[in-house]
Amino acid sequence: ALHLPLLVRSDEPTSSFGQESTPYTDQETGLTMERFFGARTTFGFAFTRSVQDTNSSSFIGQLTFPLANGVGWGAFGLTGDMEGNFILAAWPDGNGGVMSSFRQATDEDNPPEVGGNFKVRPIASGISVNDTFLTYTFLCENCLDATLGLGPQATVGNAVMGWALSERAVSNPADPGARLGFHERGFGPFTARWASATSAGFEQIAASAGALVGASNRAVAATPNAFGDSGDSDDEDDDEVPRGGGRGGGGAGDDSDDSD
């Protein structure tokens, strides 16, 4: 008899904090950035700040990731542990554009939408979507906040952040509060080299950002320090995947085919 393999949900991260961001120049905006890139998934998250104000709580980010027949979603998070992580997720809106919303991963099967002082404004020159790939460039205003996992004071060096990816369709994709589902394609931590993430062209590109993306009427207030509420494990491997941002250093990048 033919036995088909079962699809088993994995809660094990597919990257490590040893994987560091690297210098990157975005061809559409001309911004010099730092970027985490997963060789197996081709998921990317790039980020940069103003040369003039490295203490700002705002930055420009860019999510890039593959789609499966035009569907899927991707996200970056302020900490390296997905449980309780504050994330910005993006996905095709079903009308030729991109939708995004802030979530807190207190429920990994459907992270609830949250609102607060943080805002996201799309940068049209750095947005594209088709059946196979999505690029979403945005201004993230007041997104760096220590109570959400990563504050400006922790970005003077390296900080551990996170990412997540799914190739499953988002229900009601035009709704910012749409159900996302589990990140079955991959997730995990990486080390973001914030000290190197500045661009002389930041102000010009930031000024081109569009109107803020509104939340749905189901959004709830973000919970401060939710990233620390997931409980401590007794596993010996706890130190290998740090929960919060702000961890300095980071070893050589892990580019093996078994990661990301």
From TrEMBL:
Residues 24-203 form the Cellobiose dehydrogenase-like cytochrome domain. Residues 231-240 have a biased composition (Acidic residues). Residues 243-253 have a biased composition (Gly residues). Coiled coil: none annotated. Residues 223-260 are annotated as: Disordered. This is Cellobiose dehydrogenase-like cytochrome domain-containing protein. InterPro entries: Cellobiose_DH-like_cyt, GMC_Oxidoreductase_CD.
